[in-house]
Amino acid sequence: MNPRAAFRCTAGLLALACLALSACKPPAPSPPPPLSLDKVTPDMNLMAADFLRDFDGQKYAGKVIEITGIYFTWTLVDDGHHATDLSLLASGWPDKLVFALDRKVMDQRWLILDYWSLIRMRGRYAGRDADGTVHFTDSVLISTRFEAKDHPAAIKVQAPELARAFWNTDSGSAESRLYAGRVIEVTGTVVSVEGTEVALDTGEAEHPLRCRLEDADASIAPGQTISLKGYCWENTVEMTRLAVRGCVRQ
Fold first, then answer.
1. CA 183 from chain center: how many Å?
2. Which domain range does residue 118 map to?
3. Mapping DSSP to helix (H, G, I), strand (E, B) and coil, where does residue 72 land?
4. How far apart, in whole angstroms, are the C-alpha atoms of residue 45 and residue 51?
5. Range list of β-strands (E), the chain
6. For residues 73 and 249, what is the distance between their CA atoms, to the nearest angstrom?
7. Residues with Cβ within 8 Å of residue 170, at least 6 apart in sequence
């Protein structure tokens, strides 16, 4: 056989062999499905008010963020049994945080949530509308119970100073937003204890600062000076506009 023809024949056979081998290779494995965010460590863990106060769309872009806020509402799909999203608010802020739920996680705890309760959500930041609404995707409900011990106090304040920030200003003022919607540590003199409610002296006998304990504490008594850590709630319904919820003694 002509050497050149033999070379071409050998090359052709090798090419056919390579094609045959490649045809026998198993297909490349499919990439694993993305982990549900309930199994992902969040990039940030924030109170809703702190998220809004220090808002930075570039810093948040694509990040998995865990946020504690006030449960406000939900949206149902057509079957009326499954929520598509949950919305949170931050006390003292008009903006709404909407968490589109991960449909692969069939979590029905939203059915037993009380409106205006403090809950913790985890989601991937997806942007903010012109009206201030913030959106998260692939979201999961992390906790239906607020635990003050899980959050550092953003600020420490005396009870009379805290009261003045709300009583002498309008809702949403710079003074009240220094505290509203944040975990604070407030110090004051106990004037009364009723179950889980502790009232601290503000200098206004008719308007003490009402602090709701997470659990009753028999060691707290009138006349003591104590420090409590809890969620500062701007209550626009009551005249005093102020309460501290989910408190633990420091």
1. 13
2. 37-145
3. strand
4. 9
5. 44-47, 64-76, 83-89, 96-101, 118-128, 134-143, 155-158, 183-194, 197-200, 209-213, 225-233, 243-249
6. 31
7. 176
Number of domain units in the chain: 2
Q: Which pair of structure tokens corresponds to residue 1? A: 């056989």
Same domain, 163 and 76: no
> What confidence tens digit (pLDDT) does each residue in 69-87 have?
999 888 876 555 566 888 9
Q: What is the largest CA-CA distance in the chain?
A: 115
Instruction: Kindly write down the DSSP assignment for every residue of 1-45, as one continuous string.
Output: --HHHHHHHHHHHHHHHHHHHHHHSPPPPPPPPPPPGGGS--SEE
- CA torsion sign for 122, 125, 129, 131 is positive
Look-up: residue for tokens 């808002």?
A: 55
**Residue 43 has which token pair?**
């990039």
Let me know: does 185 contact 232? Beta carbons within 8 Å.
Answer: no
Residue 190 in any domain: the answer is yes
Can you tell me the distance from the alpha carbon of 38 to that of 112, in angstroms, rounded to the nearest whole number?
A: 19
25 located within any domain: no
User: Are the beta carbons of 60 and 80 closer than 8 angstroms?
Assistant: no
Structure-token pair, residue 204: 């206004």
* pLDDT score recorded for residue 242: 81
Q: How far apart are CA 4 and CA 24, in angstroms?
A: 31
What confidence tens digit (pLDDT) does each residue in 215-243 have? 899 999 999 999 999 999 886 555 556 88
Q: Are 190 and 220 in contact (CB under 8 A)?
A: yes
Write the pLDDT tens digit of every residue in 126-183.
999 999 999 999 999 999 888 888 889 999 999 999 998 888 766 667 888 899 999 9
Q: Which two tokens stand for residue 111?
A: 């059915």
